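Entry
Fold in token form

___
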Amino acid sequence: MGQYKKLWYTLMCVLTLTFALLGYLGVEVYRQAPPFPEQYVSASGQTVMTKDDILKGQSAWQSTGGMELGSVLGHGAYQAPDWTADFLHRELVAWLDLTAQAEHGKKFDDLDVAQKATIQARLKQEYREQSGVDASGNVKLSDTRVKAIAQVSQYYVDLYGDKAELNQTRESFAMKTNTLPDEQARKHLANFFFWTAWSASANRPDSVATYTNNWPHEPLIDNVPTTENVMWSLASIVFLLAGVGFLVWGYHFMRSHDDEPKVPESDPLSKVVLTPSQKALWKYAALTVILFIVQILLGGLVAHYTVEGQTFFGIELSQILPYSLARTWHLQSALFWIATGFLTAGLFVAPIINGGKDPKFQALGVNLLYIALFIVVAGSYAGNFTSIVLNKLSGSANFWFGHQGYEYLDLGRFWQILLYVGFLLWLFLMLRCTVSAFKNGGDKNLLAIFVASIVGVGMFYGPGLFYGEHTTLAVMEYWRWWVVHLWVEGFFEVFATAALAFIFYNLGLVSYKSATVASLVAGSLFLVGGVPGTFHHLYFSGTTTPIMAAGASFSALEVVPLILLGHEAYEHWSHQHAAPWMKRLRWPLMSFVAVAFWNMLGAGVFGFLINPPISLFYLQGLNTTAVHAHAALFGVYGFLALGFVLMVGCYIKPHYTYDEKQMSWGFWLMNAGLVGMIISSLLPIGVYQAAASITHGLWYARSEAFMQQGHLEALRWLRTLSDLVFIGGACLFAWQVIKMSISKDKAA
């Protein structure tokens, strides 16, 4: 450890404490997850539905695309309703009307103020306080509620079928006709939606809050933010301000002020003789940008489906490529191409660490990994299509080979395991190059943090395998966010920092000490907030106050290191002027500049917009979440992957020169298109929805009546211009990478 001992101890302490907290509170998630009651029974003792009915409904929901068609408990797609909030509100309204009709012979809206107040007080009491699980594991429901459930359930049975009266509604929700052809499966699906609504309306035992911490906002039964919600939201703001203050002080008083080395007169990496495994990376670069283009074209189709729910400019597409499938492939393609870009960077750097040579069969391993990626992509896409479009998979067969139903982990479990095997193969290829380098003399601290980061990238996709087909949603979300948040926002960030530090050191742009210190400090800063900050996704998924407290507090700290990224962006930009030969690396460096900008804005500003519990209580499931997702996922990890691929291309095809004009247009069009998507459509729609959610409830902000208003539809049409700008820029960028990949340039 030497002179970096304190930094290593800090990093180890951060990892130990944060993972201990993540694990300890994970036990709390398991203990406090909303239960699946054995039975729901009527007051007269008749069985309304069983646990098995609900679990079959969960499987049916997964086979339709799950979170890719509407959302459940706030997580999922934004076009159709949040089924939890929608079912709950419809059930409450039905109960009010049934009660008013039985007692006064009128609809609820026709009653006077006093009559309404009396009935609504009984509504709140029955739903919040009288629908708990008894000692036998059952929940007793009033006869009125049983009738309300049956009435609402029939609506979902018809909606997911082919009833002609709901054709316009299906178009508004971007649902294909006969989304779920089997009527019994549709009935089970309605049972599952009811269970999520029950968990969002029934108080926990010995608590005044529901299993979902009173989410969603529903004034009819006083589902409003809890006291703890408000307190920890205020605390998160205090932690953010304190973190920023201490970081600024530490940055100026504790950072090293050593002079950076004199930049070499020629590119040191250009003198490295390429190994067979490095030469094989041209096809990885091509695959990265091909999947990138597929992803953004699908994204444009998904965006268009929000205005024409079943057609593309009049062309009937929904029966062969419905919204749920297009969105599935859109998100899965993003994971595939971004991961491929990161794997490419690692495989290029590994032989350099190994002294400029490949271990035995390294090139074979690289080629096998490439084939494995193709198999996973093709197989998972075929499974998604078979499940959603052909409706040929159901139950366990769907979960294993079709569609798991969960965002970013949509691929069937079989394909998910194969993908994990691919990551482990990449890790093996990396370690066999890097571990042997520890035997050489000299300081190995930078190598150690780089190796630690590749272990994190290779291993931490695994927690996505820790839930099953019928795992309750709170537990599933715990493990899903280990992948979507911790793996990506934690270990990908550390890997990117360490990889760039290693590359810039070998280029002679930064000193070894600066590269090492930057990697160790960044690792601690990213992980101290990023590991327990995972809990901010679980506020309302069926967890308790400790989860909210940890998520709010630590997710605020995630924003802290992003404050100083302007300095990092300037350093990346200035590197291109450090020496004449650095001009070749201009576009990789400009991509890294974009990463710093979007990390600050997309991950920092837009991320904190929805992170405090009080904010997310009203904004979860709205287009404000999509603002953060687009700006952070592409702006940060997308540009990182593109930057890595462009940099690798500069060395595997050293005589190929990227077209300056096309690269410039491509770069700025992508950034302009991303800004345009946000300011012309996603953000203003999200603001309108937020006002509706705060005033009336989430059910209204996601309803057909609200979302199909003329001005909101006009904003979604307006987004088409920004999408075209973005797609145009991406195609220019991708074309340059493809030309590089297939060029006849023979590297020495």
